[in-house]
Write a structure and sequence with these properties.
Layout (H helix, E strand, L loop, with lengths): L8 H4 L49 E2 L19 E2 L4 H12 L3 H17 L4 H13 L3 H14 L4 H13 L3 H14 L4 H13 L3 H14 L4 H13 L3 H14 L4 H7 L20
Helix pairs in contact: 3-4, 4-5, 5-6, 6-7, 6-8, 7-8, 8-9, 8-10, 9-10, 10-11, 11-12
Length: about 290
Amino acid sequence: MKLRFRTPLAALALLGFFTGCASTASEKEKPTTMSQPMAAPTAPTPAGSPEPTPPPTVTGAPVDAPLAGTAGSAPVAAAAAPVVVAPTAAVASAERAREKRMTTAEYRTMLATAEAAVKANPKSSAALLQRAKAKSYLKQYSEAMPDYTAALRYERTNPDIYYNRGVNELMTKQYKAATYDFAAALKFRPDDKESYFGRGVAKMQMYQYKSAVGDFTKAIELDSDYADAWEYRGICYASFGKLVDARRDLERATQLNPDAAKSLRKYVGNEGKTPVKAPAAKAAPRR
């Protein structure tokens, strides 16, 4: 059975943006939204409070590198480039959740602040990322893409840039590109549950349900209370007939987030007590 689902704005924001399933379902019947990178998002949603001040940048503070000619440093022609330390997965997740709860006015303030920072330093990856995220939160997805790409030009190892670009790609239905960006985010931050979730969502959109199960499983291993991951894994199981597993996951998702009960009814049926399709009757034995 092929399933089709919507892209969550709450997941992104997977993601206040980061996503739904079943080709014959109406939008209201689709799975609940996820928790993820920009605010739509989903990140991400079953699975995000306004603050008047602009949010801090996603990247951490630069680690001071020794300048040429200082004691203990190797002779070089110019000062060494600063090394930027990205926040931990837990810090990044908390920041995404905070940003998801911001108001439209605050996103506009975020954008104006970032615009000024980019004007002052056009090569600042942090400023470019903030401007891109602000545009994404304001649903200016196409306009945000050049800023994500430019930010990566100056800082290729920042998982937050890859993650947020992946969420933006989910919103513009560039699912294959999104899988690559979430994979890159995981390369530099392997314990980011929302990057696993985002990649799983992108795979679901391409009907790669069995592969998506692996990503949702990793997200659950990192956070056993990740309601969105339980819900979407359950939907994936239902898509290829593993109704016992689907029932288990969707019941767990409903315990964590009552809104997931809609998916439980839709994909397993009768509140999870019986499958949607009754098993075929066995043929009577020949006499």
